Amino acid sequence: MPTSTTLREDLNALLIVQVIDTRIDRARTAIAALDTGAKSAARFNTQKTESEALRAAAVKAQTEQKDGELRLSSIETKTAQVNKSLFGGTVTATRELENLQRELAMLARQKDDIELAVLAAMEASGETLAAAEASEQTLATLAAQYRATRAAYKERHAELTAEITAAETEKAAAVTAVPPALLARYDAIRPKRDGIGATSLDTDGVSCGACHTKLNTTLTADVRASQSLQTCEYCGRILVPPAPVP
Ligand SMILES: [Zn+2]
User: Fold this and answer.
1) How many angstroms separate the alpha carbon of residue 237 from the centre of ligand 1?
2) Which DSSP letter does residue 231 get?
């Protein structure tokens, strides 16, 4: 059988519940405000796409350079063969010699063109490779940042969750000291008033401890007397009398 309690005792018990509820609310707010790493992951993914594109461009430029070098080498071989025919003494017919000279001239023009193309490809290859490497370095930094953010998130989330679990256990014990009707009234006010359903008077003894509005003297006297339940005339929260001076 529960022992009979005074309203003052009930209100003090309610205030203990309010303190625990505030702790739980703060921990929940802190969890909601934690950096989950989603932004960090998005930055990483954007960078990854860019890195992959730059790496592909670098590979393409290198391939173009190698192709050019191969073509250049084959033209050089061809030129050597034509020179051999031209000056080897096996070809003597004038028309044939003229043809060979024309071919040599054509090969020389092709060589010039390909040499220019190879130089351009080499330059592009160097540039794209440098860009790809710089981007990959940024990507590695972003990956490290993401891992650090996630680790910090998990650690803090676990701490806050443990705080909530402990506070809920404490609350389960604390509510047993509050009459159900009073608790129900408190629970009805709390969601509408930023989580504060009950408050003691301000330190000045004449204002609401939550909305800080100065209350009329009859009301504060009634709160102190604790003969009936009193609520703030402005915010509607349950008013708890100040602890008696020992
Ligand atoms: Zn108030």
Assistant:
1) 6
2) B
